[in-house]
Structures are given as structure tokens and as C-alpha cells.
Please model this.
Amino acid sequence: MSAEGLLSVRDLRVGFATEGGLLQAVDGVSFDVRPGEVVAIVGESGSGKSVTAQTMIGLTRSKNSRIEGSVKLDGEELIDADDATMRRLRGERIAMIFQDPMTSFNPVYRLGDQIVEAIRAHKGEVDKGEARKRVVELFESVGIPNAERRVDSYPHEFSGGMRQRAMIAMALALEPEVLIADEPTTALDVTIQAQILRLLEDLNRQHGLATILITHDLGVVAEVADRVLVMYAGRVVEQGTLDEIFYDPQHPYTWGLMGSLTRLDRPRPHRLPQIAGSPPSLLDLPEGCPFRPRCPHEFSKCSQDPGLEVRLPDVPDHRDRCWLTPEQKREKRQVEGQIGLEAPQEAPRA
Amino acid sequence: MLRFILRRLVGMVIVLFVVSILVFLIFNVIPNSPPAQRLAGKNATPVLVKSIEEEWGFDKSLPEQYVTMMKKVFTNELIQYSPRTSVEDRIVEGIPATLSLSIGAGIIWLSLGLFLGYLSAIRAGGWLDRILTGLAVAGISIPVFLLAPVLIYFLTYKLEIFPNGGYVKLTEDPWEWLTHLILPWFTLAVLSIGFYSRVLRSNMLDVMNEDYVRTARAKGLSERRVMTRHVLRNSLIPITTLFGLDFGATIAGTAIITEVLYNIEGIGLYAAESIGKLELPPIMGITLYGAFFVVFINALVDIAYAYLDPRVRLGSTAR
Model:
């Protein structure tokens, strides 16, 4: 990760002042996204992946949030940009797709009108008729049948999959450079998921979008991602290319995620493997490695915080936060012939 | 949409029919004394009571009595007996005053309530919000029978800004109409201004957390547009229902105290007088009139609701 990408995030930290103290939701996240590339951010709920995404377009700004670090779009710093600048940028240069298409459209306006509103918010000179024509084209390009008629439908008249297509159409309306997809397929059933992913992949290739895909679903990651960031408790615990993460994962948390995947090509396990315990409270992180309480491979060195460093000498782009040596990792991650995280010896202290 | 309106109107007729039966039961059947005696009034002669009994058919079956009563209502033959005047004529005479009072108050409380509620919501937690909250609670807590005398005392007797009660027809003198109504309007509106601003504020704070508001921001809309087109617009839907109920109730009865206090010759004042003199026919007529307005305005509100929220439309025309 030597060259800066179109979107470049450096040491991003987002905290929220709460009654219980400062909640550090994102703690030192750095990555780059280049045009035509899909970077996936993976992690369980509360790991900070959505906050990272929303901070990039200024949606987490508020009186009680503390945002530090740097987010640069094409060299322009966004973290301290004023609200008007951010507003112009949202939708026009960085577009976002949200998780639940059921609730992400305003129920009282026609879908077409909501997209027209987005176009005209940035291009006031485009008249309504013209904008509407553009919406029809967009609907066609994302595979909504009867586009001409469907632009006049209300959100509740669309199925979940169609609504997500409309959401993607809206995101593409102003031909953005960066697309942030926050769990775009989570609320959809599996066949529709595949269609939506295919669509995102095609559009990514056609328009050369720099895409950030946020998900907890490794299946989705395997389908479309070029590079992967694994997040845990607000930090990146491992990052690398898709192949590295899937075939040579270095962090026990990643092993746990891999191990809890069900696979069609293996005999069905008696019980689905899981990562013991639950994520730590962000207000009360354990000292040292935050994954330590849930990790069966914990040893004395884990009480010191492992930095996100290159730990595989021949793979300079791969970084992780685990003190084990690469040899130890290769040995320990083998559980019943595949990558996984074995059950902890003692009860987890989470 | 047309079907929705039709269905709603049919529903309205059914409700009114049920109300008329209830009125009939309450006034003519349930009380344990001869109904003719009560209809005739306190100091009626036996001859009058006898004639009323025949006129209303109190010796016939209940369904026949009901039909007789409704016939009277619809043919302007519902009369009060001392002095002998048509109830419907009195109600029709009172309608302009009552409507002037209620509609004016309704406009004031809706616009001020929404304006203050909106300010409160977009400044939630700030000093303006705190002040408005205090004012709203004060407005909700002051009873009309206290507020009106205080206003009359200071603004009419002491400062002589406003005329002392009464009602002037809009067609006679619009300026006098206005000055006579300003105090009654505010007296009637103060409670609702406070209440509506609180309700709108909490609705808006709820809506602000909706996913589609985040979407609106992510589209790059200005904060003002997000607040008005998305947050306020969706917060108004429950307000519509509330306004329908309150406005109907105001025309049908809440205005009584205000009309009495400011001596406005509307239906409320007529009702208060009739109750004082135990005149049954006017009370019967006013009850039916009140029910009609409540039901009619609620039907209008439902239609407005369907216009504001497209999901309601679908529910009723899907099949």
C-alpha cells in the first residue's frame, strides 16, 4: 500500500462522548481505495465498520463526536472540510448505499422523485423532466423492469431486491468516484444477494468506481472484494488481498470468522463453530490485544498491544496485529483440517 | 383514491346513524320519567305535555318513535317549547359565530404550534428549546376559565385594547369581527399551541433517527431541506389525526366555555343556556350537530391522511 489511492484514509479515529466516558468506536484505521477496486471492511456488529464509512462522508459529525486523522479524496482533506463542502461532495463524488432498503427510502415520496431530488440538489440547472429521464435510464441500467412506469412507484410498492436496485440507481445518479456500500445485501435473501452483488461488480467495472464494501458476510467478500480489512473493536486487526485473507490468514480473529463459515464442500459439522465470548465493551477495552480474552492462543506477550505491522517478510502489503510467529500461526490455525479457531481451554473472560 | 373517499363517506353515514340511535336512546328511552314532560320544559302546562306526547308518538313502538324523531330533525320541526322556536334555526344562526371562533383558533394553534414545535426540534437541547418547553407546559396547564378572565381584565378593562365580548358578523364589519375574536381565538388556542408544539417536537426527534433521513443527508441535501422535506413532512402525518379529533371536538363542544366567557352568540352559548334551563330539544339538536361535525371532520382527515401517506391508500384499494 505504497501509492495513495483515490480515497486515502490515514489513522482515522472516531470517538463519541457518552455518559460512561469516551467511546472510541474507530481507533486508528488506515487504508486506500483506487478506482475500479473493491475494498471490503469485515467485522462483527459494533466493530466500527459502519462508523468508519459514515465518517468518510461526514455523517458522524455532531457535538459529541471526536474525529481525528485524515480522509483524503483525490488529495483534498475531508475531515476538517466545512459542512457546505461536505454536502456538495456527498452524493456527487462519494455516494452511499445503505443496509436496509425497506427503511432507507422516505415512504411518502415516489422513488423517482427521491432520485430527482438528489440530482437537483447538486445540479440545480437540470429541470425536472430531464432529471426524470435520467432516472428512467438509471432504473434501466440497474435492471428494474418497466422503468418508465416504475419511477412513479412508492417504496412500499417495490420488493426488497428492487428497492436495493433503486438505491444503487440513486447512488449512481451523479456518477460518483467513490461508492460506499454499507451491508448492501444483508437484508436480502440469498438469490437476490447474488444478483445485487453481480450488479455492483458490473457497475464497479464499467464506471471505474472506487468501492468500499462493508459487510459481516465473508461469502459476500469472497465474491467481489479485491482487498480486505478485518476490523475488531474499532481497529483493523488484519489487512491484505482477498487471497491472503482467505488462504493465509494471520490473525486468530480472522481464523474464527473463517471457521464459522458453513461450507457446502465439507461434511456438516455437529455444531457450527463460533468465536467464544462476545466483543469487549468499547468503554472498557482489555489491556494489550483487545481480542485476548476470547483467544485460545493467548500467551504472555499478549498483554502488550500488538501494532498493525508487516509480519510476513515476503508479503509487504499484508499487516496484522498478532504476536504469534508466522510458523506458529500456520500450525495453530489448523482445526480439523481447515482454518479455524479452536475452542478456548478455559472459560473466556469476556 | 376515489374509492377510498367513497368508502370513507359511507363509513361516515353509518357512524352518524349509530350516533342518532344513541341520542334517541339517551334522550327518549333510558330516563325513567315521561319523555314528553321532559321535552316540554320546566313550567309546561298539561295541555302542552299532552300535545307533545301525541306529536312525538310516545305511545307507539320505539322504532316508530325513532323515525318520528329523525323526521323532525330533517324537516326542521325540532322545536323548543318555551319560548316556541325552531332549534335548527337557532343552530344555523349560531354556526357562523362558532365556526369563526373555531376555525380562527384552529388556524392559530396549528400554525403557531407547528412553528414553535419545529423550532424546538431543530434546536433540541438548546436554550430556545428549554424556553419553548417551559412556555408549552405553562400553556397546557392554564385553564380556559382562568386565562379568559385574566385576559379580559388586563386587555379589555385596564388597557382597553379589545372590545368587551360579543360577536360582530364578518359581513357587517370585518374589522370589528376581527377585534372581537382575537382574545377568544387565543384563549381557545393556547392549550393546543403548547400541546401541538410538544407533539411535533417529539415526532420530529423520532423521525430524525430514521434511515431515510440519513439517506437524505447522504444525497447531499441541505440541512434545511432535510428538515422540512423529510423530517417535518413525515412528522405531520400523526399531527393530522390529532388535529382532526381536536378541531371536531372544538366545534362540537370545547368552544362552549370560551363562547360563554366572551359572550359570543354561537352554538356553544346556546347549548350552555339550554342546559341551564333544562331545555331538551336544543340539547338533542346540538348533540346531533356536534356528532355530525366530529364525524365529518374525521372523514376529511382520513382523506387528507391518505393523501399524506401513500401506504394508507394501498391498504384500502389493494383488492
